[in-house]
Amino acid sequence: MTNRSRTIKIALAGNANVGKSTIFNQITGLAQHVGNWPGKTVEKAEGIVKYGSYIVEVLDLPGTYSLSAYSEEEVIAREYIATEKPDIILNVIDASSLERNLYLTIQILELEAPVVVALNLIDIATKRGLNIAINRLSEILGVPVIPMIAISGQGVDEALSIAVKAALGEIKLNPLKIRYGKEVEDSIEKLRHIITEKASFLCRTYPPRWLAVKLLERDNEVISKFNSISEGREILLLAESLACRLEEVHGEPSHIIIAAERYALASKIANEVLKVKTPPTSSLIENLSLITTHKIWGYLILILVLTSMFSLIFFIGGYLSGLLEELLYVLINELPALRFRVIRGFIDGFVAGLVLVIPYVVPFYILLYIMEDSGYLPRAAFLVDGLMHKIGLHGKALIPLLLGYGCNVPACIGCRIMESWREKLILGFLITIVPCAARTIIILNLVGNYIGVHVALILYIMNLALVFAIGKLANLWLTGEAIGLIMEMPPFRIPSIKIILLKTYIRIKEFLYIAFPLLIIGSGFVNYLEETGLLNVIEKEFEPIVSSLLGLPTVTVVPLILGILRKELVIAMLAEASGTMNFSLVLTPRQMIVFTIFTMLYIPCIATLAALVKEYGVKKTLVITAANIILAITVSLIINISLLVYNYS
Amino acid sequence: MKDLLIEVLELIKELKYKFSISDASRRLNQSEQAISEVLGNALNNGYIVKNSYGYLLTDKGEKAVLNHRGNHLHNSIHKLSILDLLRRRFEGKVHNWYSHISRSHGLDKDSVRDLTRDLQQMPWRIEDTVPLVDLREGDRALVAYILGGRGLTLRLAEMGLTPNVEVRIIRKGPMRGPIEILVRGTSLALGYGVAKRVFVRRV
Lengths: 649, 203
Hints:
The complex is a heterodimer. Among the domains of chain A are: 7-167, P-loop containing nucleotide triphosphate hydrolases (Rossmann fold, 3-Layer(aba) Sandwich); 182-250; 526-645, no CATH class. In chain A, 64% of the residues lie in helices and 8% in strands. Chain A is built from 27 helices and 10 strands. Chain A has helices at 20-28, 72-84, 98-110, 122-127, 134-141, 156-167, 182-198, 200-203, 208-216, 220-227, 232-250, 254-273, 284-292, 297-332, 341-374, 376-389, 398-403, 408-414, 421-433, 437-450, 453-477, 497-532, 534-549, 557-563, 569-578, 589-601, 606-645, and strands at residues 7-14, 32-36, 43-51, 54-60, 88-94, 115-120, 130-132, 145-147, 274-276, 486-488. Chain B has 3 domains: 2-57, Arc Repressor Mutant, subunit A, CATH 1.10.10; 62-126, no CATH class; 128-202, Ferrous iron transport protein A (FeoA) (SH3 type barrels, Roll). Chain B is built from 9 helices and 8 strands. Chain B has helices at 2-15, 21-28, 32-44, 59-78, 82-91, 97-104, 109-121, 150-158, 192-195; strands at 48-50, 55-57, 129-131, 140-146, 166-172, 179-183, 186-190, 198-202. At the A-B interface, α3, α12, α16 and β10 of A face α7, α8, β7 and α9 of B. β10 of chain A pairs antiparallel with β7 (186-190) of chain B.
């Protein structure tokens, strides 16, 4: 108790799917902040809580299976551990798959970081007939091991208190020293020696032994650290020759040798602490797993789940959305400030955001998190992986893509579940082409109403073909290998409602911060343009493209511009601009088809743009938008010309 | 004749001094006379040497085995898809599998070197290894080697797929879908493209 206001830094580390974020949410509750790592697109979740007289800063490191330089997440996690030196790493491990999880624990221990282990999911391990000697595990690792069922909060407080005690030095840690086989160990020693001698600068941040291991593994990040110091070259040459010699002896690449040895250690520890009782022959979980990935039943269940999810969001959500909008306008229309068009624009933007978020985005997140936390999502991805590969994506892309048919906004945010930039970009672009509910209304209202439902259906199918073709093209153009699916299949569990609501709340808050300002300002700005007559100037500017290129009447320009705000506005504005609700008076059938196709593709609405900026940054959003515009003009032009050629007016 | 020679060389590589003509005749389903003939040929052509303990491969013999393994690997990748099969028709037989694999499968120099080493050191016959996608549900196998660049091999090793680890096929997804395996007590789904690059030995 020497320093009463001391801050203790605790970082949560662990594999994906071990309940790390559940523990984080249990500890911090609403007192958390979600942002990005500086300069990165990887999410950073932090929270500050009071524990006794201490202030505890909890940080949720990205979920990783390893600490190699394989992904951005892994580099972030290990750099944080090495350079920020948190007081304690709370390593969350899955008791039901101990061996795989210990692989990461071993690597954290290699970084010589102070560790406390949270052994989560012991309920599932017990159900599988696994009994873990917790004291023995703690003895071997030389650090406290706390059994936990994070979803019900069991063991979370205890883990926090032990982590704090360990951080204050009240519990002594005697972490296991990781040792490899003789040949590897000899190489490490030789390297460690020269590193401590000649790269003392790096040794101030990183443990020299860890640097030696990473050099033997030919870790790109660490190699570049040595490249930038004067005596690095000599060390690197030695490392390379040692790695080559190891490879000659073992007949495997050095990174595999070292991974295999770490696993051999993990396996040894797991075997020592695990007692396998005879597992129950057929549990409910096993059966559920079997049926949800079944060749026939699996697909039927998937269709059932997806249809109910979408009907729930879009029918109930749509109804609520309309109700809410009416209610809000009843209230707003009383306001005297409405006389000013710009203020009216601000309010319109605010209302648009509100009627979008509450009925659509909130239920979407709740349902998505239920699917995620229950373990159904990986099963769905498993079923559609083969199909998704044809467009350069893999199974996990299913949910965001389908979601795009309802609303592009949550779909774009959902893109973050993809691992690589390549896939995120392809998926993000495809989503903006997918016609959302609002654009479906345009298709039905114009083409469906005036030409025929069959033509509307053809447009829909054409769009689907376009999504496929663009996916294939993007897959060819974008460099880099398409990543195959490597996905853990976690067991089914019953999700916690508290955690789901908490996660939804955090996401919505984040969404409001980014989307609302844009919606309000954008909406006000367009009204300002209208007020000052600038809209007419813009109308004149765009007229050549719209009328001569696409053969559309001038009256369509303003609806198209306002459609960027909200696609729902296109029909209403077209009615207002042309002064009639009977569109066959202003548009010929050919013009209707071209107009609809153009609206379907041209520019994402402002809320989608906001979501894109949030997920991809400004530059990539501009690229996607430009691609959209080019695609819209090209496709509309081709359709226009072919319709003209076939004398369809 | 040529094929039998390779099979005998593979056996010698696997069994070393435990190799015997009678055992080989039983394993390869050939007469002892045929085996002796092949051994004589192999000795004359410098593929093997004989000492008081038994037979050993020479460098030339090792090279012949490696070449055979490379070609076999190349064939087993190709038998998987019609498109690849067609491409092979046009390319004709591959003479240099080494450069073929780096060219057509996008492996860098280091990865090809790693793969070559894996093939060379593999302690059983190449015919005993199959890609993961060829196994059926419920089959058990040991991981032999992975045809892929550093990123893929490292990622898979980190998920527990290290050499000689046992895997069990839990289920195969429909339409060239992913394959779910049990490795080190964890369920892992591998996409078809990944699974066809993981070569295993049945147990």
